[in-house]
Amino acid sequence: MWSRILLVLAFLGLSLGLDQVRYDNYKVYNVRIDDLEQFQLLRSQEKSLKLSSWREARHLGESSDLMLPPEYQETFETLLINHNFSYSLKIDNVQYHIDAQRPKQRITSMEWTQFHTLDEIYTWLDLIESRYPDIVTPFTIGNSHEGRPIRGVKISYKEGNPAVFIESNIHAREWITSSTITYFIDELLVPRNPGVRDIAQNVDWYIIPVLNTDGFVYSHEVERLWRKSRLNSDPTGECVGTDLNRNFDFLWMLTGASSDFCDETYAGPSAESDVEISQLTAYINNSIPEGSIKIYISLHSYGQYVLSPWGHTAAEFPEHYPQMMHVAKGFSDALLRRYGTVFTYGSSATTLYEVSGSGKEWAYAVKGIKIPYTIELRDKGRLGFVLPPEDIIPVAREVTEGFVGMINAAREMDVL
Ligand SMILES: *[C@@H]1O[C@H](CO)[C@@H](O)[C@H](O)[C@H]1NC(C)=O
Ligand SMILES: *[C@@H]1O[C@H](CO)[C@@H](O)[C@H](O)[C@H]1NC(C)=O
Ligand SMILES: [Zn+2]
Predict the structure, then answer these.
(1) What residues pack around ion ligand 3 (CB closer than 5 A)?
(2) Segment holding 340, helix H or strand E
(3) Peptidase M14 domain: from which residue to which, for each copy (predicted)?
(4) Domain 118-221+249-412 top-level CATH class
């Protein structure tokens, strides 16, 4: 009843265009940061130029993808030129690509030609659960902060299989992740080639397509580029949301996370402050047999990386780093061989940037899961979060192939 009323209200809100944030003529720049002075300069201008970071350079010599509204672009470009930044323009009008992601003619059934809403994904989960009851076991880790169920499926063809755990869309705006993983679920149910049939039948897959349900719905209905949860812990009420992938209880807030409510990497008021994370870890602790999960994957976009621990230090590597790299190579090579897409692999701290309190770090250090990754899907920064819907199937196909390579490599290393 309430959900029906809420649906109607949400629909009204949408059709009246209420509160939909628009990004007309917002641009995304790729800016290389060569020295500390440049780094600090950008930091100091963040608020006054309304810079919002799509991807942040954390080491000198790397680039950041920065979005800003039209009224600040001239000032920004002048600043870049005067301070010798090397930069390029990646996206000319963000709204154009957002519109392209929301076709007028909605197809509500899952065909992977559109980005689907949470309701559409859940209706599809209902469908596969009733169609394949022997293979699909539904589960719910609990409700989100705003009361939406956080659903998952276990796909298992037989008893005694090793398990892989995948959480996706922990960051709300990374829509390609839930699109890809639902396609992969479909492949597991109706395998189209022997490699996929093998990993479907001989591995158990626990998959949560949308972990950050509140943020995901918010990114559909209000602010397309929303990343965090919707928990409001800022006493002034100005800035909402926790970066859920900084909220896990391992080295929480040590590095690569922020205590500023307004930052995109705000780690929350305390470790596991957000129910999305506390219920996820409780579910893994209490509802999955200890030791059965061999691989933990957190799906993200973008950048085309397979990232392992450690996130907090580049100075040392975890004990199982050789196995992690062998299995990551299995994933990347399979993709490259069949589709020519390049995924770079390595530890987070050495490959991308330092991070702590993320899911894969918790999975390894607290749960002893030897193969834990953050996988960043396409692209490498041309369109970032606003990939066209035509890319869903190619991305999903290559990731499926990657998972076949990953499982085979894990078997070679005896970690499965
Ligand atoms: C920019 O580069 C030029 C030429 O290399 C140099 O003269 C100038 O001092 C630099 N400006 C800044 C702000 O670093
Ligand atoms: C989950 O289990 C780990 C040990 O395996 C423990 O440290 C942690 O506190 C548990 N978390 C929850 C939420 O039960
Ligand atoms: Zn992410």
Answers:
(1) 171, 300
(2) none
(3) 114-410
(4) alpha beta
